């Protein structure tokens, strides 16, 4: 029994526990086992005044894509487009006809003005076929150019023909919107040069029934050619360079991407907690995690683990931010320190908690008196 007690006393540090102590965290940062090179930084007035750079790689990539050349005109006719061709005629015409008045002197033909609307779809070979005009090439040109071609074909057959061509349904001069939007599908692009946020708004915006529909938990995924970029919807602003002009063929998807932080250690429960707000301070995060447990935690050891990156998304260094919640000023600092997506909060264990566990274990094995003596020591 004496040998067992000696082993138990010497093994106090290896008692079951759900978090390291302040001492063990500090030792790990300076010891050989720190193979990833993390550092501990105390949260002070200087830190909150100069917060770490946020990961803005998505915004930077979108801004770079804004330099992609846009078509000179947005009304180019393409294969599969549906056209409305309006033919206006005055006098002797093909489509308008003439009015005939009967009388004793014979027929009197009165010229009239007429209009004929013809719907035509551009075939796979890029051509269309019209009555009296025949087949002509329509793709890779523009409505005014095609209208002049048709007018030239009609001139020998009609008196003073005029032609207007309009694209009523475009197949390729569109952007495709999918995911958590109210009206997914094709969005026609016009001479207004719609931007990214414009196209999302035209598609009805984020679904009102989707969690995070306000943009807090949604990512915008843009695919252009062989490039793909994702950025959080809440980070996009109308004035940003990242709110780029959408080009034909762009594909936009709104994806569910919940922002969360995780709480571990000497707290009432280990949990993953959603942000549910645009910004969450460290003080709010500690409160949502129910804070350090009075019976087990060391309030002087509240840590925030973060993988720091620069504004381009490049990995800098794993960093552990430390705050002592036993100091009154720490509550102001915690209000000013903003947490980020996937941060980890750790409530350090109290060393006294380990002694209490050992005392309880000794009490179960031996006697209350022995446990009391050990706890006193």
Automatic annotation (TrEMBL):
<comment type="similarity">
    <text>Belongs to the BexD/CtrA/VexA family.</text>
</comment>
<dbReference type="Pfam" id="PF22461">
    <property type="entry name" value="SLBB_2"/>
</dbReference>
<dbReference type="InterPro" id="IPR049712">
    <property type="entry name" value="Poly_export"/>
</dbReference>
<keyword id="KW-0762">Sugar transport</keyword>
<keyword id="KW-0732">Signal</keyword>
<keyword id="KW-0472">Membrane</keyword>
<feature type="domain" description="Polysaccharide export protein N-terminal">
    <location>
        <begin position="73"/>
        <end position="167"/>
    </location>
</feature>
<keyword id="KW-1134">Transmembrane beta strand</keyword>
<protein>
    <submittedName>
        <fullName>Polysaccharide export protein</fullName>
    </submittedName>
</protein>
<keyword id="KW-0449">Lipoprotein</keyword>
<keyword id="KW-0406">Ion transport</keyword>
<dbReference type="InterPro" id="IPR054765">
    <property type="entry name" value="SLBB_dom"/>
</dbReference>
<keyword id="KW-0626">Porin</keyword>
<dbReference type="Pfam" id="PF10531">
    <property type="entry name" value="SLBB"/>
</dbReference>
<keyword id="KW-0813">Transport</keyword>
<feature type="domain" description="SLBB">
    <location>
        <begin position="265"/>
        <end position="345"/>
    </location>
</feature>
<dbReference type="InterPro" id="IPR003715">
    <property type="entry name" value="Poly_export_N"/>
</dbReference>
<keyword id="KW-0998">Cell outer membrane</keyword>
<dbReference type="InterPro" id="IPR019554">
    <property type="entry name" value="Soluble_ligand-bd"/>
</dbReference>
<keyword id="KW-0564">Palmitate</keyword>
<feature type="domain" description="Soluble ligand binding">
    <location>
        <begin position="174"/>
        <end position="209"/>
    </location>
</feature>
<keyword id="KW-0625">Polysaccharide transport</keyword>
<keyword id="KW-0812">Transmembrane</keyword>
<dbReference type="Pfam" id="PF02563">
    <property type="entry name" value="Poly_export"/>
</dbReference>
């Amino acid at each position: 029994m004496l040998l067992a007690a000696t082993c138990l006393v010497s093994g106090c540090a290896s008692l079951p526990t759900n978090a390291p102590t302040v001492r063990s965290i500090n030792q790990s940062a300076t010891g050989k086992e720190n193979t990833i090179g993390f550092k501990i930084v105390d949260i002070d007035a200087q830190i909150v005044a100069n917060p770490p750079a946020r990961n803005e790689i998505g915004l930077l990539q979108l801004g770079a894509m804004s330099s992609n050349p846009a078509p000179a005109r947005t009304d180019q006719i393409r294969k599969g487009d549906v056209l409305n061709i309006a033919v206006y005629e005055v006098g002797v015409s093909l489509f308008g006809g003439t009015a005939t008045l009967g009388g004793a002197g014979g027929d009197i033909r009165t010229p009239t003005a007429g209009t004929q609307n013809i719907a035509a779809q551009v075939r796979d070979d890029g051509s269309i076929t019209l009555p009296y005009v025949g087949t002509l090439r329509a793709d890779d040109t523009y409505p005014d150019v095609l209208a002049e071609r048709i007018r030239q074909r009609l001139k020998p057959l009609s008196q003073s023909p005029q032609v207007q061509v309009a694209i009523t349904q475009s197949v390729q001069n569109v952007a495709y919107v999918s995911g958590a939007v109210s009206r997914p599908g094709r969005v026609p692009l016009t001479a207004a040069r719609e931007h990214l946020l414009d196209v999302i708004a035209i598609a009805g915006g984020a679904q009102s029934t989707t969690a995070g529909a306000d943009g807090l938990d949604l990512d915008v995924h843009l695919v252009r050619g062989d490039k793909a970029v994702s950025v959080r919807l809440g980070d996009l602003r109308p004035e940003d360079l990242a709110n780029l002009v959408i080009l034909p063929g762009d594909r936009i998807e709104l994806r569910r991407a919940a922002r969360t932080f995780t709480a571990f250690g000497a707290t009432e429960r280990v949990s993953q907690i959603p942000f549910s707000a645009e910004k969450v301070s460290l003080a709010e995060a500690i409160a949502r995690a129910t804070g350090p447990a009075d019976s087990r935690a060391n309030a002087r050891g509240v840590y925030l683990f973060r993988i720091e990156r620069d504004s381009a998304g490049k990995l800098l260094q794993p960093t552990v931010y430390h705050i002592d919640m036993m100091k009154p000023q720490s509550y102001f600092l915690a209000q000013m320190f903003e947490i980020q997506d996937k941060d980890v909060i750790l409530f350090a264990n109290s060393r006294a908690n380990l002694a209490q566990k050992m005392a309880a274990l000794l009490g179960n094995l031996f006697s209350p008196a022995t446990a009391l003596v050990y706890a006193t020591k």
